[in-house]
Amino acid sequence: MRRTSTAIALLLVAMAAPAAASSFAGTSAGATSGGISASSGSTSGNDKVLLEARSDAASFVATEGRIRGVRLEAALRHLRGQSDAARDATDLALARSILAL
């Protein structure tokens, strides 16, 4: 179980790295003179799904699985579609990994 959690955490970190890079590019290099980022939508859909699920994941973990938000459900489906390790992990383990992003 520990090995699966480590694999999931590494997968999530790898998936989130492009989001951090694109966010930096969107707020510094891509900023327009009006202060609005010209590339604010540059975060890929995959990264966005995981990042938007963080608050739902926090509620899920805090309530020991009693509160399941739609964003968390989308992130769980996404992760399980991308990784064999995620398919074998519990919802709680995946939610904790999302919070670690």
TrEMBL record:
Matching Pfam families, A to Z?
DUF2388 (PF09498)
Region (Disordered), start-end ranges: 25-45
Kindly indicate where the leader peptide sits in this chain: 1-25
InterPro entries named in the record? CHP02448 (IPR012661)
| This protein's UniProt keywords | Signal
Q: Give the NCBIfam families listed for this entry.
A: conserverd hypothetical protein (TIGR02448)
State the name under which the record lists this protein.
DUF2388 domain-containing protein
Tell me what organism the protein belongs to.
Luteimonas yindakuii
